[in-house]
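Lecture notes, structural biology module. Today: joint structure prediction for complexes of two components.
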Amino acid sequence: MSIPGTTTLLLDEPGVERTLVRLAGEILNGGVSSDLMLVGIHRRGAELATRLADLISEGAGSEIPTGSLDITLYRDDFDQIGPRPVIGQTEIPGNITGLRVVVVDDVLYTGRTVRAALNELADFGRPRRIELCVLVDRGGRELPIQADHVGVAVEVADGERVEVRVPELDGELSVMLVTSAENE
Amino acid sequence: MNQPRPEVALGKDLVGLEGLSRETITGILDTAEPFKEISERAIKKVPVLRGKTIVNLFFEPSTRTRISFEFAEKRLGADTVNISSSGSSVMKGETLVDTARNLEAMRIDMVVIRHASSGAARFLADRIPSNVINGGDGQHEHPTQALLDMLTLRDRLGRIEGLKVCIVGDIVHSRVARSNIFGLRALGAEVAVCGPRSLIPYGIEELGVETFYHIEDAIEWADALNILRLQLERMQTGFIPSLREYNRVFGVTRARLEKAPRDTVILHPGPMNRGVEIDSAVADGPQSVILPQVTNGVAVRMAVLYLLAGGVFGGAEAAKQESA
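The predicted structure, tokenised, for the full assembly:
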């Protein structure tokens, strides 16, 4: 595969934008009505959800409610991996019971983040349906979870990392494949 | 994206704010922010401390602090046990260490202790492997109270640095005053105390605070007043002539507050003696943040429990990257 310590561009800015337009279209085809809500997983998933919501709102002609979810407190490895990141804000706009909720994240890997997100959502109510939309599916699942809407699917080795960059946090919109130097 | 992870700034215990850095205290307050939202949910519970056992060991009467800790623990999913001195083996003469060791033998994870003796929390923390949180020890410290006071001040005024905060009343008996002085000074606030000479400890200026002996001067100076409860149970020995006189000379009344050059924020750690240290019109007035203090108390205690249990603040996305 790639050389250790290198960063390879998987999607540039127009590439990410094209992919988001296609994903927005897919979600729209699922039938937009007043009961759709997007929920992005903190933090890059939340940024992507905002972008998707804008695109869907344009297509549908109405504002799509968008929330964000921080899953830190629902992780299954709190005792195992030591220091935890700072907790972000969870904001679910209104009651989710009866809605079609699309969970948005940047990268789908082991599936554990999604498992945590599903548990957290269940504490907010009982949606009619929950779907998963990810920009990148990198394989390597450890749980029986799959996405309904996938931007790009790439096979990535264990020592490598897929990095989604968004302007709000990283100054650019792109997807990178990073091979760590110590993993030779 | 490989930001260095910060050191875990809270160690095993939270005994006091003395000696804690500005970064650590700010980190606790920042960690409390996302916990506020959990108490607004329909299901007010997250599973982060699921399976942890926490003992609330209260050797002194307490309603607010004990319930606030208990809500915080339960909303993080921990199992809790409350022990108070009346009706337990403490009454039968068991020592603090023996009580704690017996609890340890039942495999607990954390202890919240309130005790009448200054130093009790430190004493316990040094002797058991569980995390120890000081819920108030004698006249020493009450760190979570000061943290919730600072969080509430920050909510209301947007910052702590540069604020002028005056602590009013019974300073000599007050662990709340000491914790506030340490915390506020670390965050760059100016701190003063105000009260009758008999209730201001000798040498207080060594902690870097100003002293006022007239409440009018304090009101003139301060952005916020933290009005302490006159601890009637510690007043047997004539520190003040009478409650009526205290109210006349040091009570924070509407008439006095109206002369303030700004909208002074009013804090009180509770329980209030209405008509003694604070008048009802002030306690229930628009400048009072006394009930927001109580709400913030739960969030601050959730943050402290979370951090002591292994969370850390200031890190980035590193952990999520590992298992996205």
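Point to remember: The two ends of chain A are 11 Å apart (CA to CA).
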